[in-house]
Write a structure and sequence with these properties.
The chain is an alpha/beta fold. The protein has 3 domains: 150 residues, no CATH class; 67 residues; 121 residues, CBS-domain. The chain contains 12 helices and 10 strands. The strands form 3 sheets. A 4-stranded mixed beta sheet has the order 4-5-6-7. α1 crosses α2, α2 crosses α4 and α3 packs antiparallel against α4. The protein starts with 9 loop residues before the first strand and ends with a helix.
Length: 364
């Protein structure tokens, strides 16, 4: 982690440094930067400044997404800077298309604003020489970032704006996601077609730097859109994941009960889970199934069932009414092998095994 602006952790991928070095080399080539910059050292210094400022602008772009998301009380886990730009990891999907639009448009809007500020500084101060060269390039790069990100296809910001528009019109966020993802795949094909059509010579050709860069971005977009499509299919089936239908019947036992006797009682009751209770019959722990299986049968009469139990943390007690994405999120926030399911009245309904949920999720 390199910092926490606005309380949001910012991380830099190790591969970022590799690409940053490549960009410095490319920008330091004679003719890559406009203006009269004499000497190889000066070119490298200017190129480094341009690359650093570019990623500072990318960070500001991502912070715009994150700040707007937090204004809507959506948790932001982190911002990651990586070779192809940046990524704001917002933990929850916006609940309305309006919020989706504002969060998505904030980044490109900020990039346009940065380009405008840079242009205003150039005109106001009448910059010349190296400062003019640096700001000219930063203005141009922010314009490119803003325009490219607004292309209408996921995973770009413009794809999320497109998704928001389709969602607003149809009222179907799932269908909007699929449409925007396919738009992203179409854009990926177009990005590959451009350098192929350019042949083997010129900047936009596959052999040229820009053409190869477009192909790399296209591959990333195709793969990302594919992940979105797979995620959309899973989300369609998520409502079928219900805690009640996945619950195992459980029986209460005291912590001092021998494991062999606890298993015998469970078999008689046709139960598959053991809940440890205190003297007031209040659940305090769940016996770990993996630990039970790992205990040799000949030792079970001499092992207290409570010694194989995990104390119930608040996150391990879930409502039996949970289903779909809410169930997945509840389990993700508190990783455990078993969870106690309770009725709204507080009565124990059963035990949810993470293995059962994983199996059902895989089938979905």
């Amino acid at each position: 982690m390199v910092g926490r602006p606005f309380g949001i952790p910012v991380y830099i991928s190790p591969y970022w440094f590799v690409l940053a070095a490549v960009l410095v080399v490319l920008y330091s080539e004679p003719g890559a930067l406009p203006g009269t910059i004499n000497g190889s050292v000066a070119r490298y210094v200017v190129a480094t400044i341009v690359v650093v400022l570019l990623y500072v602008c990318v960070l500001i772009h991502e912070l715009s997404h994150s700040v707007v998301a937090r204004a809507f009380r959506l948790p932001v886990r982190r911002i990651l800077l990586w070779p192809l730009g940046g990524f704001s990891e917002i933990e929850q999907e916006p609940p309305t298309p309006g919020q989706e639009f504002l969060i998505s448009a904030a980044g490109p809007g900020m990039s346009l604003a940065l380009a405008g500020i840079g242009y205003g500084v150039i005109e106001l101060l009448h910059l010349r020489g190296i400062p003019r060269v640096v700001l000219d390039r930063v203005v141009l790069l922010n314009l490119v970032v803003a325009i490219f990100n607004m292309l209408p296809g996921l995973p770009l910001d413009g794809g999320r704006v497109l998704r928001a528009g389709i969602w607003k019109v149809t009222g179907q966020p799932g269908q909007a996601t699929v449409a925007a993802a396919w738009a992203g795949r179409i854009l990926a094909v177009v990005l590959v077609a451009v350098p192929l059509a350019a042949g083997t010579s010129g900047t936009l050709s596959v052999d040229g730097g820009l053409g190869l860069w477009l192909v790399v971005i296209a591959i990333f977009m195709w793969m990302s859109a594919g992940q979105v499509l797979r995620g959309a299919k899973i989300r369609e089936k998520l409502p079928a994941l219900q805690a009640r239908t996945l619950a195992r019947r459980a029986i209460p036992i005291p912590s001092t009960l021998p494991l062999a006797e606890a298993i015998r009682r469970a078999d008689l009751a046709q139960a598959r889970a053991l809940v440890v209770v205190d003297h007031d019959a209040k659940p305090i722990a769940i016996v770990n199934e993996g630990a039970v299986i790992a205990t040799p049968e000949q030792r079970r009469p001499w092992v207290d069932a409570g010694s194989l139990a995990r104390t119930l943390d608040p996150g391990m007690i879930l409502s039996a009414d949970l289903s779909g994405i809410e169930l997945i999120e509840a389990v993700r926030k508190s990783p455990a092998s078993e969870y106690l399911l309770v009725e709204p009245s507080g009565q124990v309904y059963g035990v949810l095994a993470a293995a059962d949920l994983d199996l059902a999720f895989g089938r979905a």
